[in-house]
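Why predict the complex rather than its parts? Because the way molecules touch one another can change local conformation, and only a joint prediction can capture that. The input here totals 422 residues.
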Amino acid sequence: MLQVNVLRQKTEWVKERLAVKNFKQPELVDAIVAMDDERKKLQAEFDALQAKVNASSKNIGKLMSTGNREEAEQLKADVATWKLQLEPGKKQAAETEKKLEETITLLPNLPSEKVPKGLSPEDNEVVKQTEVPMLPETALPHWELTKKYKLIDFDLGNKITGSGFPVYTGKGAKLQRSLIQYFLDYNTDAGYKEIIPPFMVNEASAFGTGQLPDKEGQMYFVNEDGFYLIPTSEVPVTNMYRDTIVKQEELPVKMTAYSPCFRREAGSYGKDVRGLNRLHQFEKVEIVQIVDAEKSYDALEEMVSHVERLLQLLKLPYRILRLCGGDMSFTSALTYDFEVYSAAQKRWLEVSSVSNFESYQSNRLKCRYKDESGKMQLVHTLNGSSLALPRILACLLENNQTENSIVIPEVLRRYFGEDAIG
RNA sequence: GGAGAGUUGUCCGAGUGGUUGAAGGAGCACGCCUGGAAAGUGUGUAUACCUCUAAAGGGUAUCGAGGGUUCGAAUCCCUCACUCUCCGCCA
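Output of the joint prediction:
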């Protein structure tokens, strides 16, 4: 959530930035500032009257204790009339504040200066791209390979739950586990603290990281308890720091978590959902950082290199995209996407998204620290996948296939225990 | 799921209707004391919003969350969340 003071002080600049994100209602910025003016005015009025009431109430107490009953009763009557005046002001102030909150929540985060203009994925900027491998025409897509080597059973998942819930079997399950373990070790070696978070969150948490109200229909919801199944461990992990004041010397906080992720993916169809390309339940290892406001872009670069190195170690072909305003998430200020090349499908698959949210999440989370001058500052939050499992697995199977085997990447062998499948 | 007891500031802990944003202690910060340290001692030690602003100051709110009663609530009532104990159930 953006800060009202920023809207107030840099109104035109805010509108320019929103335009980069293709935000269509710049007039809301002015409306919000006006609501804030109104809010201040109402509060000042209310506070003044309330102060009078409070002071008189104290006086009544004194009068009562000195036995001055009559005067106390008189004052009581006065206060009662002031209180009647107080009611409408209180109500109006609350309504204005609520409206303000609702409206400012509609504004997405402001994109950083580095964000390219654009409307769709075609406008993303390719920052880096490795060589793309060519496979023989007989190469199989991963959904054939998983069948051939009995690694994943999609039909079984359909039976047990429904589409998008695959069953990993035998070596497929073990390969998946090996990847998770490898990712976690790689992250913790780099100083990220390992977390196993809850896989369901309450409404406050879903709001804190910005899933609500923006992604309401994309999350599974447990009605009886009011819980959301997490769409990513970013949500519970970042919310560990909701309503906290962090000591500056404790920053940066670096955390990594493995979790399943649940997404309803309403509206997806076709080749996008084939095999492992898009699922309702998938596994992911996430990295999260909570940092000083001035250091967040250094942290972002660090995370990007961190994820890039991981892809290099797995020897997968990849490219890094700087997302354009139109393709960025609602909450992000700058996002780098990582895609791996699925050689048998001849397409790029997103496996990581590394973002700096600046203070957009922390303003909702109320996560702050005191800077050197003793001033309260909102922290900056960042996160990234390191990495999303299914597409890594898909790509790994496709790119590493031979006539009658799948070659296991060097770095995974000590986890997997074998050099190849098949 | 049932019954009961709780939830107070960084922590411990007092407080059952009236100058209580909140006793006391610990911790922390700064000062005094000291050759130095410990002990001792003094002062300070929340957040948000508003107002004012060079600063200070002032106002409002906050004692798990939200509502209510009252001139006045940390204190009384209601709802919810969480913690603990016992019973039930259970991986």
